[in-house]
Write the structure tokens for this entry.
Amino acid sequence: MPASETILSAFADGVLRLTLNRPEKLNAFNDEMHLALRAGFARAGSDAGVRAVLLTGAGRGFCAGQDLGDRDPSAGEALDLGRTIEAFYNPLVRQIRNLEKPVVCAVNGVAAGAGANIALACDIVLAARSARFIQAFAKIGLVPDSGGTWALPRLLGEARAKALAMTGEPLPAEKAAEWGLIWRAVEDEALAGEAEALAVRLAAGPTRALGLTKQAIQAAATNSLDAQLDLERDLQREVGRGGDYAEGVAAFLEKRAPKFTGR
């Protein structure tokens, strides 16, 4: 598809940087932005040179969720919001979760509705201290989507998940980190630098092993202990035959920094 200004894309140091770019709308999603972001993640999956992804938002917010101007029920015939989810949000969340490469999310400002839950689909989430996570769905008579009802109870427990979803109260970044919803809250002015450094560090790491680590941890939510032990055995067998393990051992024995290739 042709390039879209709704997503800024840049590549360097093995990191594909994807920036939501509708700042005048707090980066709320429209169909064009969905397709452009999915194209970015498709590139991350198919391009061997991409070894990590950094997702963030332009302007004063990360993402306000769906652009409600595009889904106004007073504009005509009844809307099928299930079709919107099936066509746009669910494929995006699956892309992020299934990508066998690290995805870092830098939340600058508000992450509301689907914007919050897309951030939570990423592997490591850093947020500016001024950022807030808002399950805004109840405020407009909707149910959390984009994986929110799946992620929230797993990360926070049922009591906190229900309260956040039913009240729509903003959760400050520091509290989100304290509760285990995200990895870390950092000073606003430090967010971009810390997220960049983390993404570059991951991209220089054993990215094949990191991608399989991601998949193994995600599988643990539904696996029995026996199934998970078998999965660990199989994945360890695979990466043990790879070049990164040989390089890691050699670097350890030679007391030098390893030079991983993601294989």
